[in-house]
Design goal:
single chain; alpha+beta; Immunoglobulin-like; 2 domains; five-stranded mixed sheet; 4 helices; binds copper (II) ion
């Protein structure tokens, strides 16, 4: 690349980085807005990592610019040459270690909070992912939701409730993912996976399988609607009157993977 174009390219890259971080409110650095309280913690971690990376980047760029200007060639005399600088060497060994330890603690803390399970969830949903769709069971209500064969299955949740998702798969690995939740978890045959999620605002969002699970993986779409608690109760009652027409295959059929 010709050296004259370099500053322009660097400026363009920096502008893109700043703009992609600054588009949404509160500097989310490209992450979608979270609609769950668990997602807020993930977003906090995401933001924290970016700010720390930005701080380290600024320090390094600052030192580079300082060195380039301060020690630029003025005459043929060499600047003072030295083998070692013990304080600087200690600093550049200890400082990255402290940053990594800090990020590790920060990550562990967020992970503990996001994966924590409450003793008594408000709503329980048994999520079964299978080749190639989803079944959402509400065991406390005796309600089961599946696709009608045309539209993807639609799960309804009350806003502000802690929902326990029990995640099961009868065939291969799948992954329960609602991008706007900012949390996801795999469904692994023989493993009982659970996550608790509290949706904090009303809305309807797309969900999909985030694990490539076979040729028709793309068909594993679903949607999640979060509504007010009384609307949720109405929906549950309506579902009780609607017979379930199709069910999950109990055993996996042998199909092209
Ligand atoms: Cu899948």
């Amino acid at each position: 690349m010709p050296s004259r174009r370099r500053p322009t390219v660097i400026a363009a890259l920096l502008a893109t980085a700043v703009m992609s971080g600054g588009c949404s409110s509160g500097f989310d650095f490209g992450a979608p807005d979270s609609v769950t309280s668990q997602g807020e913690k993930v977003l906090g971690l995401w933001r924290g990592f970016h700010w720390i990376a930005l701080g380290v980047g600024l320090l390094i760029w600052g030192l580079v610019v300082f060195s380039v200007l301060r020690f630029r060639r003025r005459n043929d005399e060499l600047p003072s040459q030295s083998h070692e600088n013990i304080p600087v060497e200690i600093f550049y060994t200890v400082a990255p270690l402290l940053v990594v330890i800090g990020l590790f603690i920060f990550t562990m803390d967020a992970q503990q909070e996001v994966t924590a399970l409450v003793d008594d969830p408000d709503v329980v949903v048994d999520v079964v992912g299978f080749q190639w769709s989803w079944q959402f069971g509400y065991p406390e209500e005796g309600v089961t939701v599946v696709s009608n064969g045309v539209d993807p299955p639609r799960m309804v949740l009350p806003v502000g409730a802690t929902v326990r998702f029990n995640l099961e798969s009868p065939d291969v690995n799948h992954s329960f993912w609602v991008p706007r939740f900012l949390v996801k978890r795999d469904l692994i045959p023989g493993i009982e996976n659970q996550i608790d999620v509290e949706v904090t605002e009303a809305g309807e969002w797309e969900g999909r399988c985030a694990e490539y699970c076979g040729l028709a993986h793309y068909r594993m779409d679903f949607s999640v609607a979060a509504v007010a608690p009384d609307e949720y109760a109405e929906w549950i009652n309506a579902q009780k009157l609607t017979p379930v027409t199709t069910t999950v295959p109990v055993t996996s059929t042998v199909v092209a993977r």
